[in-house]
Design brief:
168 residues; alpha+beta; Ubiquitin-like (UB roll); Translation Initiation Factor IF3; 2 domains; 5-stranded mixed beta sheet; 4 helices; 10 strands
């Protein structure tokens, strides 16, 4: 989620008559009139940014908005993006088909993604849930060293699901 200038109220856009002000270094300057806070920020050549609009009174910070926005975006880019990849199989899946899915899951785990494996039962397959658990165990054994289950397989409506996380 990209942070934009439209996400925050700046300077004259702040409508509340009173605000709680936080200074440049993070120190509390107390509750004051918005006009007084604007004047304080203007004297320092900085912006008044509303960071907690739902608080009573709203919380604002005195800072260089462009610089702060740049720092926030930089920190956001540093954080690793993990996504959840999902594979659905049936309990009677063929050996080669399962092997292909395991190879794909291995690649995703090596890239740092989580992989969710769902075993779906249809019709008479529901009478043999142990077959689904066997398939999950088989996949778990093949992914040893690359990924491990986050939790035990969980029973969902029409089958089982388990999420694998990358091994560091």
């Amino acid at each position: 989620m990209a942070i934009t200038q439209a996400s925050y109220r700046l300077n004259q856009q702040i409508r509340s008559p009173q605000v709680r002000v936080i200074g440049e270094e993070g120190e509390q300057l107390g509750v004051m009139e918005t006009t007084q806070a604007l004047k304080l920020a203007g004297e320092k050549g900085l912006d008044l940014v509303e960071v907690a609009p739902n608080a009573q009174p709203p919380v604002v910070r005195v800072l260089d908005f462009k610089k702060w926005l740049f720092q926030r975006e930089k920190e956001e880019k540093k954080q690793p993006k993990t996504t959840l990849k999902e594979f659905r199989i049936r309990p009677n899946i063929g050996g080669k088909d399962l092997e292909v899915r395991v190879e794909r899951a291995e690649g995703f785990l090596k890239d740092g993604h989580k992989v969710k494996l769902t075993v779906l039962f249809r019709g008479r397959e529901r009478a043999h849930p142990e077959l689904g658990l066997e398939k999950i165990k088989l996949v778990e054994d093949q992914l040893k060293g690359v990924g491990k289950p986050e939790k035990e397989p969980k029973s969902i409506g029409r089958g089982y699901e388990v999420t694998f996380i990358p091994v560091k």
